[in-house]
Amino acid sequence: MSLKKFLRRLERKRIISRKPHPAIPFVLAFVSLTLGLLVLQLNINMIFSYAFFFLAGFSFVFAVLHLIVVRILE
User: Fold this and answer.
1) Is the pLDDT of residue 18 over 70?
2) Does residue 41 have a pLDDT over 60?
3) For the chain, what percent of residues have pLDDT higher than 90?
4) Going by C-beta distance under 8 Å and a sequence separation of 6 or more, which residues neighbour residue 16?
5) Whether the model pTM is above 0.90
6) What sign results for the dihedral spanned by CA atoms 10, 15, 21, 24?
7) 36 touches 58 (CB < 8 A)
8) At 28, which helix (H) or strand (E)?
9) Exposure string over 30-49, b if 16+ CB within 10 A, otherwise e
């Protein structure tokens, strides 16, 4: 089965969507922030903690831009 047919079948079953919901990037940003805080509290490695904080910041900026674009296109 080709990838295109597989994705179309998933789209018909409403498992995936071509238009992602604007809240998903915010959820991913908060997950990254939570992982960063967890790694910081467990004193595992500061590099991983900083990486998760950087990822959370980038994800939050992307989420805001994504929300603006979705609002403009609607």
Assistant:
1) no
2) yes
3) 9
4) 7, 10
5) no
6) negative
7) no
8) helix 23-42
9) eebbebbeebbeeeeeeeeb
Cβ atoms 29, 63 nearer than 8 A: yes
Q: Are 9 and 57 in contact (CB under 8 A)?
A: no
**Cβ atoms of 44 and 61 closer than 8 Å:** no
Query: What does each C-alpha distance from 22 to 6, 10, 27, 50, 62 come to in angstroms?
Result: 24, 20, 10, 26, 11
**CB of 67 closer than 8 Å to CB of 27:** no
Q: 23, 43 in Cβ contact below 8 A?
A: no
pLDDT at 48: 85
- What is the rounded distance in angstroms from the CA atom of residue 40 to the CA atom of residue 50? 9
Give the span between the Cα atoms of 23 and 4, in whole angstroms: 26
